[in-house]
Amino acid sequence: MYKWIGALTAALALVACGGPESVPGTPSATGVTPADLAALAEQYRLPDCPETDRETPAVDGGLPQTELACLGSGRKVNLAGLPRTPTIVNVWAQWCEPCREEAAFLREGLAELDGVSFVGINYNDPKPDWAVEFAGLVGWFYPHVVDQDKTLRAELPIAGIPTTFFVDEDGVIAGIHPGPFESTAQLRDLAATYLGAP
Q1: Are 65 and 58 spatial neighbours (Cβ–Cβ below 8 Å)?
Q2: Which residues of the chain, if any, have pLDDT below 70?
């Protein structure tokens, strides 16, 4: 059983970003090419996503098996195949005001939490070029994948964004935080509780 299942009730009650007012049908509708996104990712210093084995299955209580594109490079990423290190997975979009409000806390957490990896999931976001620019400007210099069609909603309790998952070194989701962080201290405390981070 998921350790974070008790947080689902709180997530359902959370008032968070539900979605943009209008979403174009496909990323190509924005007129942004893969080459454009790759150039933007380089400009804004977003690292490429790690290579993952597409065949790695999900562990019980872990992240699902996926083929999501990396924001910027387009490399396919299997979340279940991410390296087995304590990882903070933040679900966000550039149009989401609460996501913007917590941006500095994630940036500071990235700098302060030794031995913890960060992964972003750009979710239900119709403007990938704006997403790259936003992530770079706020200092989220870690890999991000794209779930524009909200496919993860069928596998994970994402009632709204931002939502953050704490994945332990065994690949199990040890905790979930629905809604924005209110401080870097709160992020550190949750990382200590769920991941044993110093």
Answers
A1: yes
A2: 1-30
Tell me the pLDDT of the chain averaged across its residues: 87
Task: Express each pLDDT in 164-179 by its tens digit.
Answer: 999 999 999 999 999 9
What is the C-alpha separation between 130 and 123, in angstroms, rounded?
Answer: 13
Entry pTM: 0.84
Strand order across the 144-147 sheet: 76-77, 68-70, 144-147, 117-123, 87-92, 163-167, 173-178
115: Cβ contacts below 8 Å, ≥ 6 apart: 85, 86, 197, 198
DSSP, res 48: P
Predicted pLDDT at 23: 35
CA 83-106-147 angle, to 5 degrees, is 60
Output b/e per residue, 61-81; b: 16+ Cβ within 10 A.
bbbebbebbbbbbbbebbbbb
